[in-house]
Amino acid sequence: xxxxxxxxxxxxxxxxxxxxxxxxxxxxxxxxxxxxxxxxxxxxxxxxxxxxxxxxxxxxxxxxxxxxxxxxxxxxxxxxxxxxxxxxxxxxxxxxxxxxxxxxxxxxxxxxxx
Amino acid sequence: xxxxxxxxxxxxxxxxxxxxxxxxxxxxxxxxxxxxxxxxxxxxxxxxxxxxxxxxxxxxxxxxxxxxxxxxxxxxxxxxxxxxxxxxxxxxxxxxxxxxxxxxxxxxxxxxx
Lengths: 114, 113
Hints:
The structure holds two protein chains of two kinds.
Chain A: E1 4-5, E2 10-14, E3 19-25, E4 32-38, E5 45-51, E6 56-59, E7 62-67, E8 72-77, E9 86-93, E10 103-104, E11 108-113
Parallel strand pairs in A: 2-11
Antiparallel strand pairs in A: 1-3, 3-8, 4-5, 4-9, 6-7, 7-8, 9-10, 9-11
Chain B: E1 4-7, E2 10-13, E3 19-25, E4 31-37, E5 43-51, E6 54-57, E7 64-66, E8 76-78, E9 87-94, E10 103-104, E11 108-112
């Protein structure tokens, strides 16, 4: 039973264009959402987060949008750069559910083409 | 500025052997976690700890044990390795546990044959 779903295993985008990565969740108790970026042979690194009290959070080229009614969030990267090629994980937590970490999606492999 | 350090980076075990995956963090974080990532899958929580002396099971704890004698260290023990434990293991820490990002180590790639 996947509570966090990333339905696109891979996504190819041209350099300079916008990359949009999508994530859906089923647990209505989730109230904090994060995106992680992972390069091969490295651990995931935190990219950006959003609380359920917001619908948008921006940090430089990265913007996360949250649609609570649709239980959907997306990560926008503008403009996409070659260094953005990585696997992106969506993660979620229920702040009232204790300290038992994050629930992760399976990841989307983003490939930025020159 | 080491962050979260995991050793070893790679290990091959025979079925039935035991080993300990080491994890240390230097950020004075109370919360620490062990995840495993199987190919094409997301990370799944094995065990976590909210402070020295306190540990709790995550989603997939069977076949593993942990201890937390200090704030810095959170080793993961495999007692009787099985092929199903072939995976990449990630240790992580966070400052407040909820609503705070996890800081990950670079992982240990374990193969059990």
